[in-house]
Write a structure and sequence with these properties.
The protein is an alpha/beta fold. Helices cover about 45% and strands about 20% of the residues.
């Protein structure tokens, strides 16, 4: 029996969260329509033992795949190679699937779309609050919307979009390994090969937010800033190759969302206390501008602050830093 969806779990030293992730599939009534690949990315804790237990107790549902450590992107690449499902949906080991996954499976098992987007849930670890990210600017169960639409209030992040397995496999789409933030590649690289799209206004993915170990925590953003810059430069290259495509408005919007994440992180106080970080950001922005001047200038023009920063050759950072340090000395 061909599976409808392959879920690929990226698991590295995930002994504290993997049980919650894997158990969320057991409550689904459509388990025969899915497979769950647990990609153990060279863990040194009890991740593999937990995965082995689930595989042993439910061999028709779970499959453990061991590999050397290669980072999150490598688990997606491995999952695509091993998948037997018609569609491929990666899941991080500290996240899980929602009960409405059953409804989504039923809506797509007889359909043939290249890309599918869903709502998703965000679970805040600090206070337990839960919020649904939905796309109310789209019709319910909308089809073929990406090429037709030119105005994009928001795009589909990693937690929302997934693809037909053959789109990833036949086009040899490869995601950066041993690198953080490659989930941004996942949201864009397959799209040039996608001709049909389907939106389902139900959440599949439950995304946990608030762990200090997450790549989006500020400490890890600072630690892996070089990875962010590397991925953004690759996304600019992607846009340069595809800027004349009918989906280019969507590509541009998505890249700007990723760039906003970098920009906001580098506007924090810590950057103004370190002149080398200020210079690093200026040099990075200059590389982006050189890579694709029109795309970069379009981004700069989104707000007056970025426009001023560009026209003054990024010296506004230095001015803010000097003002901050001056006020700090006076308070001291």
């Amino acid at each position: 029996m061909t599976k409808t969806i392959t879920f690929s779990i990226a698991a590295y030293n995930a002994e504290n969260t993997l049980e919650k992730c894997l158990s969320s599939f057991l409550s689904l009534k459509n388990k025969p329509s899915i497979e769950v690949l647990i990609i153990d990315d060279g863990s040194t804790d009890s991740t593999a033992a937990i995965a082995e237990r689930y595989e042993r107790e439910n061999p028709e549902l779970y499959k453990l795949i061991r590999k050397e450590n290669g980072g999150h992107g490598s688990t997606i690449n491995t999952g695509v190679q091993k998948a037997s499902g018609k569609y491929f949906r990666p899941i991080d080991s500290d996240d899980w699937v929602s009960p409405s996954t059953d409804e989504i499976i039923e809506k797509i098992e007889d359909k043939d779309f290249d890309a599918i987007a869903c709502d998703f849930l965000v679970k805040h670890l600090k206070d337990g609050a839960e919020e649904t990210h939905t796309y109310d600017f789209l019709e319910k169960n909308a089809e073929d919307f990406i090429s037709r639409r030119k105005d994009w209030p928001a795009t589909f992040p990693y937690h929302s979009i997934f693809y037909k397995t053959e789109i990833l496999r036949q086009n040899k789409i490869h995601f950066e390994e041993k690198c953080f933030y490659e989930d941004s590649e996942y949201t864009l690289y397959p799209l040039p090969f996608c001709e049909s799209f389907f939106y389902i206004n139900e959440p599949l993915y439950v995304y946990t937010l608030g762990s200090s170990e997450q790549s989006v925590s500020f400490a890890n953003v600072m630690k892996h800033i070089d990875n962010q810059e590397k991925i953004l430069e690759k996304l600019f290259d992607f846009y340069t190759k595809n800027e004349k495509a009918d989906k280019s408005a969507y590509y541009r919007k998505r890249i700007f969302e990723v760039l906003n994440f970098y920009y906001k992180a580098t506007m924090r106080r810590e950057w103004y206390e370190d002149s080398s970080l200020q210079e690093r950001k200026r040099a990075f922005f200059k590389r982006l501008e050189k890579s694709n001047p029109s795309l970069f200038l379009s981004y700069v023009g989104e707000t007056n602050l970025r426009k001023v920063q560009h026209l003054t050759k990024y010296r506004i950072d230095g001015l803010i830093a000097k003002t901050y340090n001056f006020l700090k000395k006076r308070q001291g």
